[in-house]
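Hello forum,

I keep getting stuck at the same step: I have a sequence, I want structure tokens, and every attempt I make locally crashes halfway through. Rather than fight my setup again tonight, could one of you with a working pipeline run this one for me? It's a single chain of 262 residues.
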Amino acid sequence: MDDAAFLRHVTDRLSGLPGVTAVSLGGSRARGTSRPGSDWDFAIYYRAQFSPQGLRDVGWPGEVSEVGGWSRGVFNGGAWLQIDGRRADVHYRDLDSIDHELAEAAAGRFRIEPLMFHLAGIPSYLVLAELAGSQTLHGQLPRPGYPAALRRSAPAIWQDRAERTLDYARAGHAPYGRLAQCAGLIAQAVSQAAHAVLAARGTWVTNDKTLLTDAGLRGADQLIAAATADTDSLLAVTDQARALCAGQISAAVADHDAELRS
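Reply #2:
Ran it on my machine without issues. Output:
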């Protein structure tokens, strides 16, 4: 089937699952930036309770997690599937959790949760970022803007984490020539700083794929690539990463302040 028929087919099957009240399409397919072979990112929205067995019973080959199988936080589970020869992800999203995170973000509050494959973890407002950049295929879903209170609070929280991570890299690993640990912490800190930059700009973040590029921190690649396993090199690279992060965060915050004054 062609892409339009595929989209209708998947939407019909997902919207018919017990408890599902809405279905969305996210990722590059929703943004119109997909390439040949890009996967399809779907989310199913339910209120309070959803049984993954219903998704298993559809019969699509792949892996279907339990609710809470990916994390105990907002990114609570989903499935990796093959549907009509296409790779498709299906994420579970609890509307009670969405309502909570909408209220928290409006008040400038959020949590940072661990999640595999995400260097800095994920902010709990990620589920709102998904909604902001998705296409609703079935039902009704909010499309949140970036809350002003979150733009004020989040940059400093992320920057503090970046600074502390770099402090530990410099004091705990660089003096001993521990290249792998030092480089790993620098990469984590730059990712944290990228979240600070994008929060100051009021730009939603949904994953790590373009995080550094979007925040103007791609230069960290060259810094880490130049590092060697000796103290002077690791101290220098850590300090250079700190300066790179501080510069981008300061610029983003200054732009936001100027925006508020205008």
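The beta strands are 20-26, 40-46, 62-64, 78-83, 86-94, 112-113, 122-123, 135-138. If your local run keeps crashing, start a new thread with the error log.
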